[in-house]
Amino acid sequence: MSEREGKQRILQGNTCLQLNKGVCYVRNKISFTHSAEHTRNSLYRLVAVVVDADLMNGVEVATTEAFVMKDRRYICKSQKHVCPSLSDKVCYLKQIGYKGPCYTRLKDTDVCTLKDLLRLLYTNPKRHEEILELKASCKFWDEIVKSAQASNGTFLYLDPRDEQKTGVVLDVKLQLKVLIVEPHRYISQCHISNVYGNDFNIHRNFNAGT
Questions:
Q1: Total of domains in the chain
Q2: Which of the residues 3, 58, 59, 134 has an alpha carbon 20 to 30 A from that of 81?
Q3: What is the pLDDT of residue 201?
Q4: What pTM was computed for the model?
Q5: Banded model confidence at residue 156, pLDDT cuts 50, 70, 90
């Protein structure tokens, strides 16, 4: 492992081994460390050399096969969530890389979580396009929206004018899931037609206009 100029040694532990008849073993723990900066997955090799100058000409340098060292902190930010939660950071969505241009632009406009992104998408899609610098018809846009709408999160909307606190529960695609007709009385979408008959169309129109 080569030294990193001005930084802490990346290889920690007892790295001085005793050679016996051409063989040595790593008996103590040797580990990799990191700095405060996130490191992308990189290829490394371990190299062993003798420290006795008199033996350098007679003992060849030993080199391992290349292996990948992964920074778990970076992996946690770069892995995408198949079913993201509303509180997940936007970097867990497809096409939005951690510290990438889309992530940075969204964060700079206080769009940090999936909930923030969906709220902006439904209330001001034009502004959403401007922030991401994408057109709504492009493939990247479609993949971002599809990834966001894979969430099983829900939105609760209560009518502030109604003291009885009636309202609706919508999924992330703004599809009606539950109707709240009075405190502690909830009617699921599949039973609304049975209870209210044709009045269900009114709620569907409300859903479309949200």
A1: 3
A2: 134
A3: 47
A4: 0.56
A5: confident
Task: Answer yes or no: do 121 and 186 share one domain.
Answer: no
* Together in a domain, 159 and 134: no
For 141, phi and psi rounded to 5 degrees? -60, -45
Task: Note whether 74 and 84 are same-domain residues.
Answer: no
Q: Is the pLDDT score of 42 beyond 90?
A: no
Same domain, yes or no: 55 and 13: yes
Look up the domain containing 189 and give its range: 154-209
**Amino acid in position 80:** K
